[in-house]
Amino acid sequence: MLRxxxxxxxxxxxxxxxxxxxxxxxxxxxxxxxxxxFDDNELSVIEQKIGKPATINKEFDEEMxxxxxxxxxxxxxxxFTELKGKxxxxxxxxxxxxxxxxxxxxxxCVGDHKDKLEKIFPLAFENFEKSETPVNIKKDVLKVxxxxxxxxxxxxxxxxxxxxxxxxxxSMYVVYSAEF
Length: 180
Known about the structure:
This protein is of the alpha+beta class. A hairpin with a 2-residue loop joins strand 1 (31-33) and strand 2 (36-37). The chain has helices spanning 2-20, 43-50, 114-120; strands spanning 31-33, 36-37, 55-61, 66-73, 76-83, 86-94, 101-103, 106-108, 141-149, 154-165, 168-175. The protein has a seven-stranded antiparallel β-sheet, with no helix packed on it. It has a four-stranded antiparallel β-sheet with strand order 2-1-7-8. The protein is elongated and about 45 Å long. The protein has one domain (2-175).
């Protein structure tokens, strides 16, 4: 019983520490596009829901000994890593308002105003920063972090990144796996 109480206290402290740093906890299973929740990132499931991509590029990374696969759709790109026969989604790049991102029962689109994001992710704006990362995004980037609970500690799992120009979202990135 004492172990359970200590475990709950440790988890609570971890969560409060995350909130204190401006992190926004987002359930990965509540992030989707076209009804595909990318926690289940099998390529066949994605093709069934979204359709066949206009372009598919697959190249082998000699240094990492993995395949990198990119799916190009109309103003939507998906980047995958294939490792030991399994495929993992690295990130989604959304460049058009016709591709709606569903996050915790809210819909966010390219073209939405920054105010909408402030209402959904108020803690993220406490740590608003100008950055050149990730994925070669230039400046005025709002970072919203997702965390994944592995038990007794919180580890980085992925993030949502909104590129903002003139207070308007011009592109969105959802990064699922750690960068190699």
